[in-house]
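Researcher: Next sequence.
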Amino acid sequence: MAAPLRALSGTPACKTASPLSRPFFQLNGMSLPFYGALGINITNTRADVQQVCEALMSPPIHSIWLMPSAEDGAFLSGLVADLAGRFGTPLFTPHLTVRGDTDLPVAALEAGIAEAAATIPAFREAVAAIETSDGYFRSFYARFRISAPLEQLKQRLDSEMADSFMPHVSLLYGPVAPAPKASAAAEFQRMLTGRAITFDRLCVVRSGQDIPISEWAVIETAQLGKGI
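Model: Next structure:
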C-alpha cells in the first residue's frame, strides 16, 4: 500500500470531488463529510484525506488464471452453483490460479501469458482429491497433482512461489457448517476423483482478496498451444 500523504492540520490538503466524480468515492467506501457542490477547496479531516489519496495511489491488483475448456467449465460451474444453492455461498467462475494478487502492470502480465501459452499446448489433468479447509477461498476444492505442464506454467509466470504451489480449482467460497461440508466433500470425492479436466487458456483477471467477487473480470486471454 502506498505511504500515506502528509497533510498539515487546518490546511486545505486535497480538493474534494465534484458531483461528477461522486460515484468513485462511493464505490470505494470513502466518507466525505464536507462536499463542495462546485468542487471548491474544502478542508477535510486528516483521515479523510489519507483515505482518498491511498485509494488514488494504490496500484490495481490482478491474477493469472488457468481456465478449463468450455465444456468442463460449464460442468464445474454447475457444481459451484449446486454448492452455492446448498450453503448460500457466492457464485464465481471456476479456475486454477497460477499467480494471485499481483500489482505487476497489466501489459507485463499479458505478455507473460502470451509467451507461456505459445509454448504449452492444452492439456488434461485428473482430479487427485476433493479437499476442504478453513480458508475462505479454499473452503472446498478439487486438487490436482503438479504435472509437467502445471509446473512449467508456474515457473514461467510465478517462479518465486513455485515451492508453495498447490494447484486446485475451488468449488465453494466461504465458511459453512463443518458436518454438511464434510458430507458434501465425501459425495464430490466419489463423483470427481480421477475425472479429467481439460485446461485450454490463460487469462489475466482483475481479481483479488480485496476486490468484490462480483467485480472480478477477465482482461486478456491467451489460448494454450496457439503458437505451436
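Model: The first strand starts at residue 62 and ends at 68. The two ends are 40 Å apart (CA to CA).
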